[in-house]
Amino acid sequence: MEAHTTTRKDPRRAPPFDVDGIRAQFPILAREVNGHPLVYLDNAASSQRPERVIERIARYYREEHANVHRGAHALSAAATGAYEGARQTVAEHIGATDPAEIVFTRGTTESINLVAAAWGGSRLGEGDEVLLTKMEHHSNLVPWQLVAGRTGAVLRFVDVTAEGRLDLDDFDRLLGPRTRLVAFTHVSNSLGTVNPVRDLVQRAHGAGALALVDGAQAAPHLTLDVADLGCDFYAFSSHKMCGPTGIGVLWSRRELLEDMPPYQGGGEMISEVTLEGSKWAAIPHKFEAGTPNIAGAVGFAEAIRFLREVGMDSIAAHEAELIGYALAALSDIPGLTLFGPREARASVFSFTFGDIHPHDLSTILDQRGIAIRAGHHCNQPLMDHFGVSGTARASLYLYNTPSEIDALVEGLAMAAEVFGGVSSFG
Amino acid sequence: MTDAKPSKPDTPPDRAIPSSLNQLYQEVILDHYRRPRNKGPLDDATHHITMNNPLCGDVIELMIRVADGRIEEARFEGRGCSISQASVSMLTGRVSGRTVEEASELSERFTRLLHGDESLLSDAGLGDLRALAGVSKFPVRIKCALLGWNCLDELMEQDPDAPSPSPSPDDGRE
């Protein structure tokens, strides 16, 4: 027990974090934008990639490419080995014992659509309930709206407190005998809230419901162990964790995946086809119709190896320092309203700044090379909940530094100057 | 820069506001953003439309009263960035009293101005709309400046003698 707590969480035991050495591995961080060094604070939308990931993808195409699982020739075997090796790397990274439980998808969005269509489409009926939350990204909302429309299932939404946490009393109140699935985000993409996944999963299971976790904003930052979390589905994307775009993962338990009908039909997902019908391939191939994103998977595995060599605990410790620094710096700015909790939060900072619209802020900051996101962050219902049409959002990752937060603060000061001061709403 | 605040010793020397930003956020634009003209309902509107930009959430409802082919009054409701809101605020002042043809033609010239046609900087007919010429240096913001004008273009294509149906909750475009 002692060893468990010290190795997993204690930031004091993390090795020294060489942020300059890490930055040097990301070619894009050396470029200038509008005459200023790039300050990339839009990592919740997509992270950047280290050279070794870019190079790994290039080497795959230069030396190893053919289609997977098809040919008997050397290159097909090489490509298959690289692709299935990537699956193994992902499985090990998230604590899955069985690589067949790793389904490669286009990303978190497709992973959730897969569950909504294949599991939801076959398991949900009239009056069945899916419990979501008011802090879900549109990708964990719209797929359920679609399947609810087809099946007659009902969607319910757990409320969010003023601080930006899930209202657990409301969670318990809405969890009922008709709840078939609870689907919620691990980390909020706009509030930075880290949800108590294990606790929520236990409550869901206690009510006889399955639990799906949207891990898009958690997987890049946290040590993951799906067995420990106890959930039934876990979805995440490569491009937010230093890997290529267009590849992501759905993890689920073997028996659930085997029990689900296919998501899409085509090559790769069948074992036998006649004109009258087909038999499905074994998992995970049953859910991977067509030629997969082989290079994406290979690049993703390289990104995971990179993150693991830096160390997920080291990354978390570095980000914990950045979070403290950013919270202090942003709290000092008159007229700035920061959303989301202070504690148990990720490195995502949504804010409004007086009456300066987030898009104007983004334009002004961009002139100083600072990339932030402005808008509703695919979280329109949540923005409505907090009575804003959108926010500015700065989101950090392992290569960000305190001096980049200083640059953001200076950029905000310039924005106030451009606008002749900061007025309050209303 | 006599009134410049003393800067911290380690701050870089490039704190000056880029001229492109000063041209974008001119006083008149910030004034229209903070004190929008003709904002609020137009109860006897003959034509109205709501459009939004789904990428950024800006939304504008443009309402006009047309009689004998002339826009008697234009008002708007909406929310969004300074550029979209200032632009539509200026629009309402600029098109009131003009014929439908004149308003369409104004919209066409304003659109050309935003796409960088500098000959229009001397076009007195555009009036204070010329303050928005700085948007041409920020291509991603052109759609902000045009949102209200896209509403106007849509209305001008409607039959001026056939009033729009009453607003409904789902009449937003896209």
Walkthrough of the structure:
Residues 1-9 of chain A have low confidence and may be disordered. Chain A is α/β, with parallel strands linked by helices. In chain A, helix 3 (51-64) runs antiparallel to helix 11 and helix 13 crosses helix 15. Chain A folds into two domains: 2-30 and 311-418, Aspartate Aminotransferase, domain 1 (Alpha-Beta Complex); 53-308, Aspartate Aminotransferase, domain 2 (3-Layer(aba) Sandwich). The termini of chain A are far apart. Chain A has helices spanning 2-9, 19-23, 51-64, 74-93, 108-123, 142-151, 168-174, 197-206, 226-229, 254-259, 294-310, 312-331, 358-366, 380-385, 402-418, and strands at residues 32-33, 36-37, 39-40, 102-105, 129-133, 154-158, 179-185, 210-214, 233-237, 248-252, 270-273, 278-280, 336-338, 348-353, 370-371, 373-375, 391-395. In chain A, the strands form five sheets. A seven-stranded mixed sheet of chain A has the order 4-10-9-8-7-5-6, sandwiched between helices. Chain A has a four-stranded antiparallel sheet with strand order 13-14-17-16, with helices on one face. With 174 residues, chain B is an alpha+beta fold. Chain B has one domain (20-159): Sufe protein. Chain: A, CATH 3.90.1010.10. Chain B is 34% helix and 16% strand. Chain B has a four-stranded mixed sheet with strand order 3-2-1-4, covered by helices on one side. Classes of the chains: A alpha/beta (426), B alpha+beta (174). Chain A binds chain B through residues 34-36, 355-360, 363-364, 367, 374-376, 380, 383, 389-390, 410, 414, 417-420, 423, and chain B through 11, 14-15, 17-18, 20-22, 24-25, 27, 30, 34, 55-58, 79-83, 138, 140-141, 144.
Q: What is the helix tally of chain A?
A: 15
- Give a short account of the largest sheet of chain A: 7 strands, mixed
CATH fold name of the largest domain in chain A: Aspartate Aminotransferase, domain 2
Query: Radius of gyration of chain B, rounded?
Result: 18 Å
Q: Strand content of the residues of chain B, in percent?
A: 15-25%
The N- to C-terminal Cα distance of chain B equals 46 Å
* Average pLDDT reading of chain B: 87
Number of strands of chain B: 4
Helical coverage of chain B, percent range:
25-40%
